[in-house]
Request: fold
Amino acid sequence: MADVWQSSMDHAVAVARKAGEMVRGALKDDRTVMTKSSAVDLVTQTDQKVEQLIIQSVKEKFPTHRFIGEESVAAGESCNLTDDPTWIIDPIDGTTNFVHAFPFVAVSIGFSVNKQVEFGVVYSCLEDKMFTARRGRGAFCNGEPLQVSEQTDIHQAIVATEFGSSRDPTAVDHIFRSLRNILCLPVHGVRGAGTAAINMCLVASGCAEAYYEIGIHVWDVAAGSLIVSEAGGVLLDVDGGDVDLMSRRIVAANNRTIAERIVKEIESFTLQRDDAPLQS
Ligand SMILES: O=P(O)(O)O[C@H]1[C@H](O)[C@@H](O)[C@H](O)[C@@H](O)[C@@H]1O
Ligand SMILES: [Mg+2]
Ligand SMILES: [Mg+2]
Reply:
């Protein structure tokens, strides 16, 4: 049966690679840093230019498709997922890393139809690693199949997480208590690449057993969520229920045993959903 979304996925890979070239080029220039929701929620003109490059290129080829882009939402566009074909774009995942030339920076493009991710593309620009997944057809890195770790013992796991962009003391307390609970299980180690998308690709690659975070957005995790599940992994909400990509919370793990063990240690809290009505 013809795969109606293959041409869209091919375009996503091509434009992610082109965006990666733009990111690498911008690393040679001075980067003007602006802030969004907090003093540490950074954005640059390169984030904005990359998002426009991706969106304009898609509009030319697929004029009926819709978009959820991190920087478009930051500029006031809505973040509502419909049944329509929708490109869910994080132009630079790891902007803080980009600003500091810390070498983990990704372009993340998820593609949803009927509110289901059909393909995901994460291009780790400085590693030149193209992570891809098509629903039901596996996950790959530069064309090589990906498979999650087979580890079921949490005490022999590496767990990835991030501290996020909030410095609200209550949220930070929850984040640190969760981190302490997990670190002291003990686990072999806790790591963070500084980008949700690359953390999820590390889980899909079998390099980390799990990644969890409260504070992410749909554009951070849409592509990575499919790459993890197509590599044999599982996705949960931090409370152990079904994952909800708009909820700003996620656990991505190699298997349910590890995922549910991590859920037990997380002090969860809720944040305003990505698709909450815009404040008037
Ligand atoms: O770099 P961006 O796209 O803003 O995404 C990161 C976010 O800013 C951080 O707060 C999260 O902790 C990371 O997981 C995101 O990758
Ligand atoms: Mg991001
Ligand atoms: Mg971003």
Remarks:
- Helices lie at 6-26, 45-61, 70-74, 95-100, 169-183, 196-204, 218-230, 256-265.
- The chain has eight helices and 14 strands.
- The mean pLDDT is 97.
- Residues 10 and 240 are 34 Å apart (CA to CA).
